[in-house]
Amino acid sequence: MSGLAGRRVATVSVVVTDYDQAIAWYVGKLGFTLAEDVDLGGGKRWVTVEPGSGQGARLLLAKADGDRQVAAIGNQTGGRVFLFLETDDFARDHATMLANGVEFREAPRHEAYGTVAVFADLSGNLWDLIEPKR
Length: 134
Description:
Layout: E1 11-16, H1 19-28, E2 33-41, E3 44-50, E4 58-63, H2 67-72, E5 81-86, H3 90-99, E6 103-104, E7 109-111, E8 114-120, E9 126-132
Parallel strand pairs: 1-4, 5-9
Antiparallel strand pairs: 2-3, 3-4, 6-8, 7-8, 8-9
């Protein structure tokens, strides 16, 4: 298995309605950085955003193409939490996100694994903001 040590999940695709709207939300509300925005022609773009720290997986903001993809917007995991945004300061990030208009679906709670609260992205996909116990 030593040949697998250099692998990691680098990019996760999120189906969105509109590239520019999604960029504005992830950058403006979550504080992510626009990493790439490349015109692929035919109305397609390669758009990636990443946490401001530059750590963790990038998100590929993929504009829905066709009825099946449009139907998946906001429900990419059948209503379960989709992604986990890890922080080193839950209180700071929770307050900033609330001030930026991020919709939290619950009050923060303390679990055996850390402090967590569920929020929805611009399309309705569910995320956890989590400060893990160290």
